[in-house]
Design goal:
It contains six helices and 15 strands. The protein is an alpha/beta fold. An eight-stranded mixed beta sheet has the order 8-7-9-10-11-12-13-14, with helices on one face. A seven-stranded mixed beta sheet has the order 6-5-4-3-2-1-15. It starts with 5 loop residues before the first strand and ends with a strand. The structure holds zinc ion (2 copies). One zinc ion binds next to loops.
Length: about 300
């Protein structure tokens, strides 16, 4: 891997809860985790159980490079279990040499650090965030923030898009934030990661609207890769899943089409759907938006 690439790797593609077993071998059973290699920066989106295997792979890569410290920024979309439950088992968090920047939404009730502690750490897990040996910086994000990595430094800077003077440089990585209200109870953040002339939009745990989510269409405009929630078949959605905060492949295709996305990846697979059902949903979606794939563990997309 060179530091000149923009790569998306899928480590967890499943929604709600992990489902290992023979029926989920093709698309995977781990919950949400996406790795983005953006030049020399490592950005991880969400800490579902997929982050555990990613952690072991990061240790392997570190060993290969003579033991270089693991430096990563973890962006959380929201605090639901399937997006946080892998964090206590993320091996780099237990290495004193690791540097982890953990960023995610500030909810009305609490700051991110408190929310993370409540979500996955004591009393339901023996080790607290502060007891983990890695160096961690935890910061809540507002939807008026933008996260920026410049070429020289490996840590993120956070700017208020309305009030701060952003130091633009040709090689900076920009993370734009879009708040979606279409997910219970507090909504979630959709991130757009932009580097050079390429971008990825990660839009999981969001439900489509009648006439398409036009705010999201605008946010995802001309993106190279749209990763979009597609948890339910249309018939299941209409039967009893309206208002549950998830989309259908058709809703994902509508956003991809209107946003002029180059490629669409269907994400957050329903844990009760077997590989064959997801393959059928993928096939149906390709009729609506041909450049569509259903996410699977191990999928790697070079932008
Ligand atoms: Zn979820
Ligand atoms: Zn959720």
């Amino acid at each position: 891997m060179t530091s000149d690439q923009f790569i998306a790797r899928f480590w967890g593609t499943r929604g709600s809860f992990p489902v290992p077993g023979p029926q989920t071998v093709r698309y995977g059973g781990n919950t949400t985790c996406l790795e983005l290699q953006v030049g020399k920066h490592l950005i991880i989106i969400d800490a579902g159980t997929g982050i555990i295997n990613l952690g072991y792979d990061l240790l392997r890569r570190s060993r290969q490079q003579g033991g270089t410290p693991i430096i990563a920024t973890l962006l959380l979309t929201h605090m639901h279990h399937d997006h946080t439950q892998g964090f206590p088992y993320f091996p780099p968090a237990y290495m004193g040499t690791s540097i982890l920047h953990i960023l995610g939404p500030r909810t009305l009730e609490e700051e991110l650090e408190d929310a993370l502690n409540h979500a996955v750490l004591p009393p339901s897990f023996p080790v607290s965030l502060r007891e983990m040996p890695s160096f961690k910086l935890v910061r809540s994000l507002s939807e008026t923030d933008m996260v920026v990595f410049d070429h020289e430094q490996s840590w993120p800077h956070i700017y208020n898009v309305y009030h701060d003077q952003i130091q633009h440089s040709a090689d900076m990585v920009q993370v734009h934030i879009h708040k979606s209200y279409a997910h219970p109870r507090n909504g979630m953040y959709i991130y757009r990661i932009q580097w050079r002339d390429k971008s990825v939009v990660f839009a999981t745990d969001t439900e489509g609207y009648a006439g398409t989510d036009r705010r999201l269409v605008k946010f995802a405009c001309n993106t190279d890769l749209l990763i979009h929630d597609a948890q339910y078949t249309t018939s299941d959605y209409l039967a009893n899943k309206q208002g549950w905060g998830h989309s259908t492949p058709q809703m994902a295709c509508e956003v991809a089409e209107l946003a002029n996305a180059h490629q669409l990846v269907l994400f957050h697979h329903n844990p009760t759907y077997h590989d064959q059902q997801i393959a059928e949903m993928e096939c149906e979606a390709q009729k609506l938006f041909p450049r569509t794939l259903a996410a699977y563990e191990g999928l790697e997309i070079v932008l």
